[in-house]
UniProtKB/TrEMBL annotation:
One of its GO terms (molecular function) is polyamine oxidase activity. SUPFAM superfamilies: FAD-linked reductases, C-terminal domain, FAD/NAD(P)-binding domain. Coiled coil: none annotated. Keywords: Signal. PANTHER family: AMINE OXIDASE DOMAIN-CONTAINING PROTEIN-RELATED, FLAVIN MONOAMINE OXIDASE. Residues 28-488 form the Amine oxidase domain. Residues 1-16 form the signal peptide. It comes from Chironomus riparius. Pfam families: Amino_oxidase. The lineage of its organism: Eukaryota, Metazoa, Ecdysozoa, Arthropoda, Hexapoda. This is Amine oxidase domain-containing protein.
């Protein structure tokens, strides 16, 4: 008998348990999952990344002697934001003062509207947004809710501020609010956005616009790999990443507990692992889930993939020789355009409709000669397809029209293409009316697929997979850690 025991002891000593993990995607969620696994002694970890860089929708590029962000830019919130919490004692964040300085509103006929009145309406609009995001009794779309509350307050006229308002202003401010929400939530229309599901999301408290100054959002990866604040604690995630590896199929078999998933890449290479963490965007899942998974994903998950929202947003950076937006003694944070109906028609006729999706042109922290625009709405495709020359011409046409003067051209322009890029196919997720109606959502999106012994073989992480802060970078960290913890717990 002792011989048998000895043999078993020998076998278990020599055959290490197979704890191999393949992570698909090196965005913030994949990187976070890798960090936690490596920290917990899982060394057989590979990250397969389709792009030729890490970071995913965090794309920090060198500019001047600093960096700018084509994707995520702000750490939204402080208390409750895991990114802020893990970094703020070691990083001196800057800010974009959207909450402290009123926006500069401009009319498309080149005049300035009554700023005090416009600011009061704008404040009301933000309060309505907040009410919807924090309410719990709403049904219907964000747009319907907003219009109902806004029209009620303005029509009621009980407040002296909103008495006898010019209907043109009332309409323009409503359209401006829609434009803001389109950009904020990356939606084509605010009638696609579920008010009820928005209210289920949470907001990390504190400043919403913490910036990485001239260092860019990529700094977060040094904190996740613990290179910062103490390089002696560095977890070597970098050597686990294989770039230019586009995964085309993941084959798994839940009926065989010894089964490994087989991951095939576009270049013909194949990998095997006991666990796969899938992190590409919901946009990628929507377009490719049928070819990516063998067998097909469960029905409810597929329904959630089809119906939950994933939308587009864009950015433009314009750098000038000197700023034309700072006037002596006038505080400035952003220009917001108010389009008169006749000018909207002119824009459409001149093939410049994409401009109607711009929420605002705003200052960029620590780049004094730069203005950045954020845009959402239905015309992102048109925006991405436009040449750099056209974007510059259109922007300058609009600035000159709204400011009523001739201006110098920018010395540089950079624009984004998140929707066209096959590895993203959009910007971030949103809670859609379709998902609300079908009763599917983040839970179905995020659920792991287990073998018959109840252990996960296929796990889903990514910023769309977090019920608390969906769509945000901190959601990416949370879901990456969650997937890693799920695997770690099996072996404890
Ligand atoms: C314009 C814009 C502005 C934003 N602003 C903010 C902001 O200010 N603050 C904030 O918190 N969030 C912001 N976000 C959202 C935030 O960037 C994302 O939610 C977050 O970065 C997503 O991380 P992720 O790891 O879940 O996904 P991703 O970053 O998309 O990572 C997934 C990775 O998978 C790779 N991949 C895709 N397909 C395959 C495949 N077949 N095989 C292998 N690899 C594949 C991709 O290349 C990518 O690297 C913004 C996003 C955009 C686009």
């Amino acid at each position: 008998m002792w011989r048998v025991t000895l043999i078993f002891a020998f076998i278990s000593l020599t055959m290490a348990v197979d704890k191999s993990v393949i992570i698909i995607g090196s965005g913030i969620s994949g990187y976070s999952a890798a960090s936690k696994l490596l920290e917990n002694g899982f060394n057989d970890v590979i990250i397969l990344e389709a792009e030729d860089r890490i970071g995913g929708r965090i794309n920090t590029i060198p500019y001047d002697d600093g960096f700018i962000d084509l994707g995520a830019q702000w750490v939204h919130g402080q208390q409750g934001n895991i990114i802020y919490e893990m970094t703020h004692e070691h990083f001196d964040f800057g800010t974009t003062p959207f909450d402290d300085i009123p926006f500069t509103f401009l009319l498309s006929n080149g005049t300035k509207p009554n700023q005090e009145l416009i600011n009061a309406i704008s404040k009301l609009c933000f309060e309505i947004d907040h009410k919807i995001y924090t309410g719990d009794t709403f049904t219907g779309s964000f747009g319907d809710m907003f219009i109902g509350i806004y029209d009620g307050i303005v029509a009621n006229g009980s407040s002296p501020v909103f008495k006898d308002l010019d209907p043109v202003i009332v309409k323009m401010m409503k359209e401006t609010s829609e434009r803001n929400i389109n950009g904020y939530a990356a939606i084509k229309s605010w009638f696609d956005l579920s008010a009820k599901l928005c209210a289920r999301e949470e907001l990390a408290q504190g400043s919403q616009h913490n910036t990485w100054r001239r260092k860019g959002f990529k700094t977060v990866f040094d904190f996740i790999s613990k290179k910062l604040p103490d390089p002696s604690q560095h977890i070597d995630i970098e050597s686990k990443v294989q770039l230019n590896k586009k995964v085309t199929n993941i084959k798994y078999n839940i009926n065989d507990v010894n089964n490994k998933a087989v991951i095939t890449c576009a270049d013909g290479s194949a990998y095997e692992a006991k666990h796969v963490i899938f992190t590409p965007s919901l946009g990628v899942l929507k377009k490719y889930h049928e070819s990516l998974f063998t067998p097909a994903l469960p029905e409810q998950k597929v329904l959630a993939i089809k119906l939950y929202g994933f939308g587009a947003a864009g950015k433009i950076f314009l750098e000038f020789d000197e700023s034309f937006w700072i006037e002596e003694g006038e505080p400035f944070v952003a220009y917001q355009f108010l389009w008169l109906d006749a000018d909207k028609e002119e824009v459409k006729a001149a093939n410049r409709e994409w401009m109607l999706g711009i929420s605002a042109f705003y200052m960029v922290d620590e780049f004094p000669n730069m203005l950045e625009a954020y845009l959402g709405g239905p015309n992102i495709e048109e925006f991405e397809a436009s040449s750099d020359e056209k974007i510059i011409n259109d922007c300058m046409w609009a600035f000159e029209k709204f400011l009523g003067k001739t201006l110098p051209r920018p010395k540089a322009m950079i624009k984004t293409n998140w929707l066209t890029n096959e590895n993203f196919l959009g910007a971030y997720s949103y809670p859609s009316m379709d998902a609300e109606k079908a009763g599917v959502g983040i839970q179905e999106l995020a659920e792991s697929i287990n073998n018959n012994d109840g252990k996960p073989i296929l796990l889903f992480a990514g910023s769309a997979m977090d019920e608390k802060y969906p769509g945000n970078t901190h959601a990416g960290v949370r879901t990456g850690f969650r997937a890693a913890d799920e695997i770690i717990s099996i072996y404890q």
